[in-house]
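Sequence and structure are no longer studied apart. As an example, we show below a sequence and the tokens encoding its fold:
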Amino acid sequence: MSLLVVGLSHRSAPVSVLERAALSADAQSKLLQDTVAAEPATEAAVLATCNRIELYADVDKFHAGVAELSTLLAQHSDVGLEELTPYLYVHYEDRAVHHLFSVACGLDSMVVGEGQILGQIKDALARAQELHTAGRLLNDLFQQALRVGKRAHSETGIDRAGQSLVTFGLEQLAVAAPVPAWAEGKKALVIGAGSMSSLAAATLARAGVAEVVVANRTFERAERLAQILTETEDNAVTARAVPMDAIPGELTRADVIVSCTGATGLVLTAEAVAQAVEGRTGRPVADAGPTAVKPERAERSAASLPPAGVGADENCPLDLAAVQPGFSVMGEAAVAGMDAATLEQHAAWAAGGTVDRRDRRTPETDAELITALAATVATVGRIPERRRPEPVAERPAPSLFLLDLAMPRDIDAAVHRLAGVRLVDIESLAEASADAPMAADVDLVRRIVSDEVAAFGAAQRAAHITPTVVALRTMAADVVASEIARLDGRLPDLDERQRGEIRQAVHRVVDKLLHAPTVRVKQLAAEPGGAGYADALRTLFDLDPETVASVSRAGDSTEKKDRPA
């Protein structure tokens, strides 16, 4: 059997796809059960976070395993297989181990070095154990991943390289200001009471907000979180809980809103946020789109441009009769596929601009360019006029700050367009983190991961041959017992002391003969490419495969019985 992982993350897929592919807790459980019920897989675990969905399995066939796991992921998400496939990545055997260990250390996180992933890996293992879909391989793998992640954080400065997604998100909200200075005295509304929301509430409380209001579908959990915030000695914050239907009223009072729920639909619409801002300011909220240029300004700008069309120079080689209405030599160079500088020179010449005659291109040298432009016009109808760039309207300073850490999103993306509002969500965090500096300690963590992958592989390969070695020694003990019994029948006059000496002598001979080969075969099996030694041992000594399998099953049973709950 071999380890296989199929998944997608913020590195392979756009946020819009991750959002649709997100799995609820029930969907994760059903996916695990369906995976182990499928033919290629015997074990399964799902690691699902706000920016990754990965299915781990122990499979006996690589290609069949990839096909089955990909299909199951598509079936349990809202993304069809054909659409999902281009965003999936596949890791197998040692590469799969390396991937999970890197994830556990925070090397594959949106914010490098963040430690929240360890809790998510622990939850993934606990879910697989609860559903009995994790066997020896995945138990060993995930437990080792947790140890590797803890080692990376304790032995290196990877914590300095990154931070939690909550902290990074708050820094993006605060822009250039320190988070404590930005947060001081503000009122915060936290929607949700899960691990991420709780971390956000605690971070805001430590940063110095004056009040934290917690809203959650289960009111008791909101009350518990508010109580914890109030009782924490380091916090000088007022905290209270409200039901979800109180959110519209709280929006008007809050300065900062953090949302991270498990809802499958929007929790806050753009209309609700706009109403909240209007309630705070008493003025309607304007739509501050990407350009925010008023129509009348655009019209005035267009009127100030030179008229569309070709100049009247008698040396112009362009056949004006062949030019379709709407053609402008002030067209975008990209549309014609031409050099922008060359096109602008020609445009100034053709429109009778201010370019010095000595710097103009001659009609002969411009003939090829103008012919290409005319051909483009004949194909697409016209070339859009080049307009002078319009300055982007300045957005007013935000009076409401929103942080959406949910996947799928809790807050309507249209909120980005509202004036006086700043929204940071998973998509904008992904863009910001792409430019985040990497710490030198990342290299140390990578070396730790490589060493741990090698050690894990060696241990697994050694463990793979152990049932064969045990079966060999069991067969040898059976042969010794049979021969001693035959000797007892042939030499009935031997006393007990003599019989004991003979038994010990025979056992010593067998042990000495088997010691060197079994020790060496374990060493060889632990090396890369050593998987074939178990097969060789079974063939050489004609071991019964069922005997080997029964030893392996007995080991699994003992391990499960001894494993702490």
